[in-house]
What we know:
The protein is of the alpha+beta class. Helices cover 17% and strands 33% of the residues. The radius of gyration is 21 Å and the shape is globular. The N and C termini lie far apart (46 Å).
Amino acid sequence: MAKPISHEYNLEVKAQVEDFHGWSMPISYSGIIDEYLFTRESASLFDVSHMGRLLVTGSEASKYLDHLITNNVTKLKVNKALYTMLLNQDSGIIDDLIIYKLETEKYFIVCNAANKTKVISHCEKELNNFSAKLMDLSDKVAQIAIQGPKAKALTEKYLKLENSIPYFNFKEIDFAGEKLLITATGYTGEKGYELYAKADTLMHIWRELLKNPELRCAGLGARDLLRLEAGYCLHGNDIDESTSPIEAGLDWTVDFSKDNFIGKENAKRKSKILKGLVFPEAQRLIPRHETKVFNEAEEEIGEITSGCFSQILNRAIALCYVKNLNHENSKIVNVKIRNKIFIAELSPTWFYRNIKGKEISYEKVF
């Protein structure tokens, strides 16, 4: 089983460690809810070194990537990041990616851990048609994330950054004689940074940052609650190779003005749509993956992909695909859990974000 860079530290502090797609990952340190709340209130460190990290270079690197992805990488400026989809020919989502433009014709790419092999294989098939090179840097460059309302200030003070890095921008600095890449993307709905460098360098930073009581470690359990509240899709749950970007509400990641990209021909298909579900405060439940959703006429119209009880909103929330596209006439649906019916309101797919100040997406009906 592969080990993240925090593995020895996790053993020291007796973190709860479990197999996550072949990685021995920390699920929690002090408890999932405790870590989730601390992230929302202060700041947390996450070991995300299991993610895939790739580099694309060459005189046709931009043209090559533009052929592979849905968004338009040719419009991306140096030191800017781009969120995009990698599709199969039927417009199914192989993976969602973040692409960072390091230099002209030089791009750093982050993909999901479980999909790295598939992403590389898919991308390599197109290499012969372009003057470009694809390299896997996952073993050479590691990654940690600092997230929460105090994350930026704590990181900037420690790294002696003069200015904050704007959202979806990045900066490379010299740190202890090595290159350190600092990006501002995130997966929690909170402000923060991701740091990329050699494993030893990042673990030195990890231990030094933890000397500040305003910062703690958090595992994948808290990260999943945070990303769901923020409405970020999890590949394998909310998006997959049977789902198009349009169905997932990710049409903003697709530039149909481009001449061509893999999957463009079928990218507008829409047999279902991803929606949010908000439950009344009085209903204390945790909506589970694959739970069925019904309209008021008791007809099945979809199923839940991800769900949790949101502590900060004091109610259950979920993401679900709705197959009956005429559901807009009524925002109220029924969810059946263990033969008991619960009511819920269809909502936008994000519930809480604090990137630019506290934002709650839905108008409370209940």
